Amino acid sequence: MGTDDVPLDDKAKRMRDLLSSFYSPDPSSTPNVSSKHGALDAINTNSFNADQYMNLLVQKSNLEALLQRHVEMAAEIKNLDTDLQMLVYENYNKFISATDAIKRMKSNIVGMEANMEQLLDKIMSVQSRSDGVNTSLFEKREHIEKLHRTRNLLRKVQFIYDLPARLGKCIKSEAYADAVKFYTGAMPIFKAYGDSSFQDCKRASEEAVAIIVKNLQRKLFSDSESIQARAEAAVLLKQLDFPVDSLKAKLLQKLEQSLGDLQLKTDELENVTVESTDPSKQGKVSDSIRSTPHEASVREFAEAICAYRVIFPDSEKQLITLAQDLVIKHFEMTEQYVKRRISSANLLGVLRTIWTDVLLMDEILCEAVLPDFSLEAAQVAVKQYVASTFTHLLQDISDALLKVNISPKEAAEEFPLQVALEASKKAVLQGSMDVLLDFRQLLDDDLGLLVKLRDFIIDWVQEGFQDFFRALDDRFLLLSGKNNSSSQDNGLTEGTQSEKVLAGLVLVLAQLSVFIEQTAIPRITEEIAASFSGGGVRGYENGPAFVPGEICRIFRSAGEKLLHHYINMSTQRVSTLLRKRFTTPNWVKHKEPREVHMFVDLFLQELEAVGSEVKQILPQGLLRKHRRSDSNGSTTSSRSNPLRDDKMSRSNTHRGRSQLLETHLAKLFKQKVEIFTKVEYTQESVVTTIVKLCLKSLQEFVRLQTFNRSGFQQIQLDIQFLRTPLKETVEDEAAIDFLLDEVIVAASERCLDPIPLEPPILDRLIQAKLAKSKEQNPIAS
Amino acid sequence: MQGGSSGIGYGLKYQARCISDVKADTDHTSFITGTLSLREENEVHLIRLSSGGTELICEGLFSHPNEIWDLASCPFDQRIFSTVFSTGESYGAAIWQIPELYGQLNSPQLEQIASLDAHVGKINCVLWWPSGRHDKLISIDDENLLLWSLDCLKKVAQVQSKESAGMLHYLSSGAWDPHDVNAVAATCESSVQFWDLRTMKKANSIEHAHIRKANYDVKKKHMLVTAEDESGIHVWDLRKPKIPVKELPGHMHWTWAVTCNPEYDGLILSAGTDSTVNLWLAPTSASDESTSGSIAESPTQQADPLLNSYSDYEDSVYGLAWSSREPWIFASLSYDGRVVVESIKPFLSRK
Q1: B181 and B164 in contact (C-beta within 8 Å)?
Q2: Residues 580-639, chain A: which have Cβ within 8 Å of B?
Q3: Considering only CA atoms, which of B127, B167, B166 is closest in space to residue B150?
Q4: Residue B273 burial by CB count (10 A; 0-12/13-18/19+): exposed, middle or buried?
Q5: What are the residue ranges spanned by the domains of chain A?
Q6: Cβ contact (<8 Å) for A636 and B40?
Q7: Which of B2, B39, B310 has the most A C-beta neighbours within 10 Å, making it the best mutation to test the interface with A?
Q8: Which of A153, A165, A167 is nearest to A240 (CA)?
Q9: What stretch of H or E contains A328?
Q10: Which of residues 177-216 of B touch A (CB under 8 A)?
Q11: Cβ-defined contact of A706 to B13 (cutoff 8 Å)
Q12: A675–B13: do the CB atoms touch at under 8 Å?
């Protein structure tokens, strides 16, 4: 085989192939393939055909190549010969060394057989001796073993006969553990022979065990025993196959019961705190004193739980629910409590007790994660507290406002509106401040529970204020009877409400809105910035929850709306008056004027009522004449020619077609008089606006009628009478003058025969009216 | 917000209250208006907007025997219109025809087709059949509602039926429902009454005080807009007459007239005694979705419904009319006799 491992050249490789094929076990396999194709390579195969090879070679090669081939082949043949020779030598050497080895082995084996026989002899003798020993000792050993067995049995019997006595002894010495051990040891025997030989014994010991069980149970339930003792008792009972689970349930029930008791105590405590905590500091002190009984009971409860846990180690789950129940009950109570009106101090008191309870419980039962659990519950409770506080505040304010509705009946109060305004102002500002102060207490407290909630509280308070003011705005609208018609539910009640609403209340609301916008909001913003900044549990992108700007805007617009609503209400009252005045009589057949018509009195009365309402609520404006800049862009204006008396006298002559042209021309040169100016929050501005609107209505009513001369004169008389008192009440005399003139112009335009009263007659009638009213006034007052 | 710049003015000689769109004139945008002067000779003006839309041309000037309190153009014949007039002591109503060759005559006289002379009290308005050629007319006086049948050729008007509104209901104006020709709304002091013309019975009513004018939404069924003295403008859905669908603030003083645009949804025009005309955008999005949609949105969507306030008037504005030919144009008439025609095109884009 290929013994040479050296890298082979072509020739050597072929050599090896040849040799291997020579030695190979199946020489026919390889040559078969190549023999078919007679190629030059086939020289190495078995089926080498020399003739074919020659033919092929001669055919394919030229002479030179043939010659070369010849040389090559000769060299190859020579090589092969030498290789073969080498191989033969090698094999021969190996064969010689093998023969040598065999020869040596043969000489060594010769002495071995004698040694083996000697060994066999010795082993045989040892065996016979040991057999001798065995037979001689056998009998004795068997006897000993029997004796030993009997003795054990006797001892056991003895033990069982002694068992009742021993158990009794154990009971006496309260060594229940031993007793149980004995009893359980004897158990298998009782089981096997209890019905026959050891009947009495078994009965006696069972009686003893029953006593033990009873004792153990008592021990388990008695609170005076140490926890270890109770735990042991439980373990022993378990060993005695006593149904422990029912015991467990019973004990748990007991715990739950004590939980109930605990709850009751909390309630009492709350009552106590409500009564006792006025100044917050004292409250704290009394809290800590008062809460001691509660704390003690909680501690007891905690210990019980602890014991229970030791006794029944696998009862955590139940205990956790139990503890959570405690917390839940606490917070349920708190939520109930929060619904009543309480101060932060009270809430703090309650929270503090709860927190101490929780901490106590946590020490014992940290698996229940009570602090986290109670944190969540506290979050709800505090949030509710914040919400309810704002609800109460809202209620307070509307209560203060609604007093207006009652007070007019009590004539004792001179300025019911003013009182209401002051009260509600105070309710808003003081109420908000109190609320803030209250919340600050929550923030400042270092109670672990609240510290974690601080950020939340800040957000809640801010949100609370935001919502509160929105709600207040809604409430204002509701109170004013001017509901959003879009909300249909309110819309249904609108009709009934608006009748009840006092105009004065609307005015109070308007002024209150201004107050909130200008005074209350800045104060509250300041306060919030001082102590409730931060927070930020809400996303920062949302910004702070309390947006004073928005609230201000809401209330500014609400104030304007309410003021307009008030003006509208007042004007409407006058309007009905005027409507009646102008629709009832037949103006074309009017009789000559004899006196100033009484609607003027009613009109003035209404204005007076408005005046007195306004005086109570609104500040006095700077006394000044009308300025043009007061009107804003959106209000409209009407300019016209205030026809003076002298012009009036001219107009009674036939004016002909030029009349309108004349008024138009006059308008061009007259200063523009603004009727609809922006309303301000002053007495004068509001009264003036109302008077203006009323006079404008008067003008419109006049324009719808047709008058005969007397009708026109009646209007002229009434208006003339109105002139003086109106000017007194109003800041913008020019506008009033103008409007009054407009009424007379309108009447003259709508008159078939516009001849005005002579000034002397006018004067006389007015004087008569004045005298008459003077006469009446003392009686009236 | 100064509306004066875009308006085209036209002056009447005397004071005036009423203006009407000449619906039957399909070639021109024209309006008809009449003066209200107790002691002078009153006139009826037929005004046409020039083709460029820059000028108001007086097409015809006719004398009218009495002061005109109400005027309505016939929807099918541009030469026919109705007036309600007063002699100062008594009221009358008549149907007039403009003479055919009025351009050539020197002082053309109006031809009276019929006199609606079955009234006793103060007549308030005459309503034409909402659209198309029809012989029915309604006239409303203080206490009664009269249904007339008019024959233009024979020049007679006969009372078909008459119903009293009942005691203490002083009717003030009315509107004919364009969607239901059997329904007429009549405003009175404390309510809007809905009459069924087939039975001449009151069918329904909206209880709301001091409604001065009512106007049906031409585009949307069941929608009615009302103008009140003190409390502005209300939009009603007649199927829910208890609560208004929408409330608009109206004017500084009384809101006198209100009218819905005949083409563009939710555009409302109102005129007031504070010498302004206000253009409102109050989409009342088909009532079914308005109940759910608008209420939910309304708190957030606080967009000002007031699109524009035209304030270039010298006196109270009583007359208001959309052009039905060019629905972005309206004419307004203030008491001092000034007609102003405005285009609302700049505001249409905002819709």
Answers
A1: no
A2: 583, 588, 633-639
A3: B127
A4: buried
A5: 243-268+293-365, 369-481+497-584, 587-620+663-780
A6: no
A7: B39
A8: A167
A9: helix A316-339
A10: 207, 210
A11: no
A12: no
Q: Cβ B38–A706 below 8 Å, yes or no?
A: yes
Q: State ipTM.
A: 0.87
Low-confidence ranges of chain A (pLDDT < 70): 1-11, 14, 18-42, 194-197, 223-228, 243-244, 258-295, 310-311, 313-315, 368, 403-415, 481-501, 533-545, 621-675, 777-781
Instruction: Find chain A residues with C-beta within 8 A of B337's C-beta.
Output: 660
- A10, amino acid identity: D
Q: What is the pLDDT of residues A484-524, one digit of tens each?
A: 433 333 333 333 344 445 777 788 888 888 888 888 888 88
Map B182-239 to HEC letters.
CEEEEEECCEEEEEECCCCEEEEEEECCCEEEEEECCCCCCEEEEEECCCEEEEEECC
Closest chain A residue to B252 measured between Cα atoms?
A676
* CB < 8 Å to A565, chain B: none
What is the Cα–Cα distance from A66 to A63, expressed in whole angstroms?
5
The neighbour count for residue B147, using CB atoms within 10 Å, is: 19
Q: Does B338 touch chain A (CB under 8 A)?
A: no
Output b/e per residue, A57-75; b: 16+ Cβ within 10 A.
Answer: beeeeeeeeeeeeeeeeee
B87 touches chain A (CB under 8 A): no
Could you tell me if B50 and B3 are in contact, meaning their C-beta atoms sit under 8 angstroms apart?
no
Can you say whether the dihedral through the CA atoms of A293, A295, A299, A305 is positive or negative? positive
pLDDT, residue A344, reads 72
CA atoms within 13 A on the CB side of A299: 6
**B242 vs A484, A492, A703: nearest CB:** A492
Distances (CA, A) of B295 to A314, A487, B179, B288, B299: 59, 7, 27, 12, 8
Q: Do A638 and B314 touch (CB under 8 A)?
A: yes
pLDDT tens by residue, A6-62: 455 666 776 777 666 666 555 444 444 444 445 566 677 777 778 888 888 888 888
Q: Minimal CA–CA distance to B39: which of B19, B60, B15, B17?
A: B15
Whether B168 and chain A come into contact, CB under 8 Å, resolves to: no
CA distance B71 to B88: 17
CA dihedral A438→A440→A442→A443, nearest 10 degrees, is 170
CA–CA min distance B170, chain A (Å): 10
Count CB pairs under 8 A between chains A and B.
89
**Interface touch A572/B309, C-beta < 8 Å:** no
Q: Is A662 on the interface with B (CB under 8 A)?
A: no
Amino acid at B116: L
How many angstroms separate the CA atoms of A735 and A638, rounded?
A: 10
Q: How confident is the model at residue B33 (pLDDT cuts 50, 70, 90)?
A: very high
DSSP labels for A491-515? HHHHHHHHHH--HHHHHHHHHHHHH
H/E stretch holding A310: helix A280-311
| Global confidence as pTM | 0.66
- Per DSSP, the three-state class of B175 is strand
Task: Report the residue of chain B nearest A568, measured CA to CA.
Answer: B230
CA A499, CA B96: separation in Å to the nearest integer?
47
Nearest to B136 by CA among B146, B126, B147, B145: B147
Indicate yes or no: CB of A638 within 8 angstroms of CB of B170: no
For B277, the closest chain A residue by CA position comes to A636
Pairwise CB contact (< 8 Å): B315 & A640 = yes
Report the distance separating Cα A491 and Cα A515, nearest Å. Answer: 28
Cite the DSSP H helix spans in chain B.
287-289, 295-297, 345-348
- Residue A241: left if φ>0, alpha if ψ -120 to 50, beta else—which one? left
Q: Answer whether B232 touches A (CB < 8 Å).
A: no
Closest CA to B221 of B281, B177, B261: B177
